[in-house]
Amino acid sequence: MSKNSKDKIPNSPNTLLHYFARSPASAKKITNPSTPTSALAATKAASTVSTGTPKGKSAVKKELEVVKEEKKPVVPTVKDDDDEEEEIVSRKKRRRVIVFDDPEDEDASGENEENRQHNNNNNDHDAETETKRFELSSFERQDETEETSNNAKITKKKSNDPEECAESQPEEPVQKKIKLEPENNGPDELKTTLDEPTVWAHQKLDFLKPNKIKDIHGHRPGHEKYDGRTLFVPESFKTSLTPAMHQWWELKSNNFDCVLFFKVGKFYELYHMDAEVGVKELGFSFMKGEFAHSGFPEQAYDRMSTTLVEKGYKVARVEQTETPEMMQDRCKSMRSVTKFDRVVRREICQVTLKGTEVFGQQVRITANHQPRYMMAIVESAARQALSGARYGVCFIDTSIGQFHVGEFEDDNQQSRLLTLLSHYPPVLILHERNIGIGGMQRIFKTLLANVKREALTNESQFWSGEKTLKYLAENFYGGSANESSKWPKVLRTLVDDTDSLGLTPKESHQLALKALGGCVWYLQRCLLDQQVLSLATFEEYVPLDEQTGIPSGNDRIADANANRFMVLDSITLNNLKVVGMEGSLIERMDHCCTKFGKRLFHHWVCAPSCERMVILERQEAVSELIENVNLLQDVRQVLGQLPDLERLLAQIHGFGNAKCSRNHPAGRAILYEEHSYGKKKIGDFISTLNGFRSLLALPELFSGVNAKLLVRLTQTSSTNADGCFPKHMETQIKFFDNAFDHEKAMQGGVIAPEKGVDEEYDAVEQDIESLKRELEEYRQEQSKYFGCNVVYFGNDKKRFQLEVPESRAKKATSEYTLEGTKKGKNAVKRFHTEETRQFLRQMMQLEDRRKAVLKDLARRIFEKFSLEYDMWKGCVDLVATLDVLTSLAEYARSEGAACVPELVEKEHVDQRALIELEEGIHPCIGADTAENYIPNGITMGAAENDKGASLVLLTGPNMGGKSTLMRQVGLLAIMAQIGSRIPAQSCRMTLIDRIFTRLGASDDIMAGHSTFLVELNETSAILKHATRDSLVLLDELGRGTATYDGTAVAGAVVHFLADLKCRTIFSTHYHNLVDNFHEDPRITLGHMACMVENEESDDPTQETVTFLYRYTDGACPKSYGFNAAKLAGMPPAIIKRAYELSKTVEAEALKRKILMKLLTNQPQADIKDLVVKLKSCRF
Questions:
Q1: What is the pLDDT of residues 513-525, one digit of tens each?
Q2: What is the value of pTM for the model shown?
Q3: Which domain holds residue 277?
Q4: Most exposed among 160, 170, 347, 1061, judged by the fewest C-beta atoms under 10 Å?
C-alpha cells in the first residue's frame, strides 16, 4: 500500500474500514472509554456518523487533546457496599475530540432510535432518554489477572441490574460529545484489520470445541443417551462470570439448541453463538466488545422470531420476571446473598419452532393458512415376520390446539403410515432414540428427509401411557378418566374399563398414549402445555382403509372413525398431483374465501366422501348456488371479510387462561410494550366479534334456499327444525358489545367495563365516587371556614392540597401543614391536613385496586368468551363447510364445469363397478392449453347384465397421451366424490373406495430400491389392498427389468386384476401381452389414436406420426419409438441403425412364433423324432 493510501480513504462512514471496525479482531483488544461521559459522547458520535450526514450545518469548535498512555491498561473492578459492578476499562493511546453540540443534533439522535432495529451499533442508547446504556458491560467476563492500580481511571458506578441503568435519567443534559479515535490509523493498521478474521470469545472456549463438547449429563455425541438439546458448562467457568452473563449461560446450558432472545430492558439481546445467528440470518451488526453481541427492540420480536423459525431455528424467548425493586426485596428476604442473586430474575417464557407456533400478544396470526403439525411416532415390532409393524401416532396443530391420537397395524410397504404423512404433512417429528434400521429409518431418509426430527429418550421423555394419563389427571383434568369429568371423550375411550382409577391404557392403545406422552413432554419443554392442552380438543385417528362400519347418529368421534372416505395414499397423491402448489388439483379448484375454509377443502380433497347421500347433498347445494348467482356473490362477500376465526378462538382462549396467567412465566413477564400488546389483544377480540356479527346475516340471506345442506348450515333450529346454526350466538355477541366501550378500549389498550358487567369493578368505582363526595364535602367545609373558595391542588402523590388565598391563610392553625406558596397578584398558600392525607391514602389504595381489577378484567372477559367455545367452534365448522361449497360453485362457474356426475347405486354387493365418462377434460390444465385440449371418454364395467369388461388394456405411441388419460380419469373421480361438478359432457359411475396408481419410473437411492423394486413395491400394495370398488391405474409395469420377465409379471398382474373385476386402466408397450388377451372377455383393448405417414419407408427418419390424443377401441400395432427418438433430436445415423436392429429382432421373433405354431399343430411323436435327429446332427 502506498504512502498516500491513507489520504485516498474517503471520509464517508460507508467505507470498508468503517464496516470492519465494528467487528474487532481478537488479537487487538478493544478499549473502553475511561469515563461515563466519554463513553456517552463516543457512542453518540459513532451513532451520528453511522446514520449518515447530520442535519446541522453550523460550524463546531473542536479541541484536540492527547491522552497520555496508561502504564497499566487493565483497571480492576471496584464494588461498593451494595455489590454494584464497575465497568472494566483498558485504554490505549488515543486522540480525544471534543465536539460542541449543534441544536439540530437532537433530531439526528432521534433517527438513531428509529433505526435501532436496523443498525445495532446504536444499541448502547436507551430508547427513550437517548442516554448511554451501561448495563451491557455487566455481561463482559471479568479478567482473572486484574490488579489494583492507584492510577486507574474508574468509570461511574452502576447497578448490577441492567434494566435499572437502562431506565435511568441524566440529571443534566450532556453538553459535550467526546469522540475517541486511535492515533495510529495508517496503512499497516488498515491492512491488519482487513486481513485478520474475527475470533470471538466463545470460539476460544474449550468446552465448546467439537472434540470436547458434552451434554448436561456429561455424555459425548455418539453416546446412546447424548442429548443435543443441552450443553455441559463447567462450574469454574460460570463462577468467573458477571451475574447477568452467568444467568445467560445457565439458560443456554439447558437450551443449547435454541437461539436465546435474552431480555435486557426494552431490548432482546443475542450473545456469543446466538449473536452470530442474528448477524447471519437477520442482518444485524455486531456491537463493540470482546464477545459477539447483537440485539433488537422488543416491538420487533414478532418479525425476528418468525424469520428465524421459518429458516429452521428454534427460538427461546427469555423475559425479565422481576423489576429492580422486586429483586431488591427478594435479596432482603434472603439470609445469604451472593453476587449472582443481585440480578433481576429471568425465565424462558416460550420456545418456538416449526410445529409449536402459538399465536399470541407478541406473535400475530400469519397469512399462511396451512396447519403445521408436530407428530410423534412410536413403532412396535410386528408379531409375525414380513407382516409390517404397529404404529402409535399423535399429531397436533398447536395453532388451534387440536390433537389427533391413533394406533394401527401396517404392512411392509407402510402404506397407512405413508398415507397419514401425506394427508397431514408434519414439520416436526418426535421419535424414539435408537429406533434401529426398520421402516421408520427408510421414511426418515426419503419422505421426511427435509423435516426436522428430534429423538426422545424412553420413559424420561417419551412417557408411557400410564405416566401420560397420570400427568393429565394431576395437571389438567382431575379425577380418573373413567369419570364423566373434564376428560375428553376420546381419551376416555383409550382407557382400560377394568381399571377403577382410570389410569391404565387399553392394550390396543398403549402406543397411541405413548405417542401422546411424547407430544405432551415436548409441549411442556416448550412451555406450551398449559395453553394448548387446556383446549382439550381431541380426535381419534383411524386409517381411512380400516374396516369399521358406518356408525349411527351424529356422534362426532364415531363419524371420524367411520369408513366413509375414499383412500388416497401418498403414492396416489403424488402421482396425480392432488396436493401441492403450482398445477395441483387443490391449487386449481381452491376458491375458498376463508383460511379455515381452505383447511377444510384440503381435507375434502385428500379424503373424498364414499357416502352417496352426502355427495348428493353437496351436489344439490352447489347447483343451487350456481343457479342463484346473486346469493353466491353476496355470501362470498360476507365470507371474504372474515379473519381466521378458528385460530383467533384458540388465541382468545389462551388470553383468558387463568392458570397460565397465575403460574406461567409469561404471566410474570415484565413487558415494556404491554400497552401496545393490550391494544392488539383487544383489536383481535373485537375483530373476532365483528366476524361472528357479520355471520348473523346468513340465516336471513339463505332464508329462501331449498337445498337440505344449505338449510342445515345457515338456519337456526327456531326457524327450521333441520337448522344447526347457533341460535344463541346473537345474544352472546350483544353481551360483549355492551360489556365495554370498544373505541375507548382500542385507544387506551385497557378494557373499562360498562356498569353492571363486572361486580368487583363496580364496587371499586362506587367506593371511589363515595370518597370523591367526601372530598367535596370537606372542601366546602374548608371554604366556609376560611371564608373563600378553597380548591384542591396537586397531582399524583401530592394531590388534595388545600389552595387558600394568601389574604385568608392567616386563619390556618397548627393542624395545617404548609406545602407551598405562590407569589404574585393571585398569591396563594397550599396546605395539607391530616384529613387530606387520609383522603390521599384511601384514594391511592382504591386506584391500585381498580388498576388490579382492570388488569385482570380483560383476561376474565376473554375467559367468559371462551366458556362458549363449543358454540363458537361449531359456528366456524358450519361456515367452513359453506365456504367450501361456494368454492366448488365458483370453480364450476369460472371453469365452465357443467357436468353433475351421476352416482349409480349398487343393487347388490357383487354387482360390477362402473365408470362411463364422455368428453372429459383434465382438470389441471392451464387456460393457455385448454382451447387445444382434446377431450376423451372411457368406459369400464357395465351396469347392464353385469357383462362389461372392467379392465382396459391401453396401448398407443409414445407421447400419445396414455398417462394423461389415466391421470384425468383419477382426478375426475376424486372431484365427483367431493361433490363438485366436473369438466366433462357426462359421467356415470359407482362409488370408488380407493384409487391406486403406478405411474412413472424412478428409483429410490436413499431407501436402496432400484426402479424395478419400486414398481413391484407399489404393485404389491395394489394386489394386497384393492377391492371390487377400487380404481387402479397402472402405467407400463415391468419395463424396469428384462423384457420376458417384465412381460410375465405384467401378464400375471393383469390376470389378477381382471379376476378381481375392479376398474383398471393398464397401459403397456408389450404387444405380446396384448396378443395374449386379445379375445379375453374380461378385458377391453384400447389405444390412443395417431396418424402415420411414410410408415412403410425403410428410412425411419422419414416416418411422420401425428398424435390425435383420442382414445379409440382396439389395439395399436406399434409404439412408434423411433418417432420419439427423432423428436428428441437423436442423430439420424443412430436412428437408422436402431431401425435395422429392430427389423432383425422382429424377424427372429416372428420365426420363433411361426415355429411354435407349427410345432403346436404336429403330433407329439413326430416332434420327438425331430428332436432325436437334431441331437444326432453335428454343427
A1: 999 999 999 999 9
A2: 0.76
A3: 201-352
A4: 170
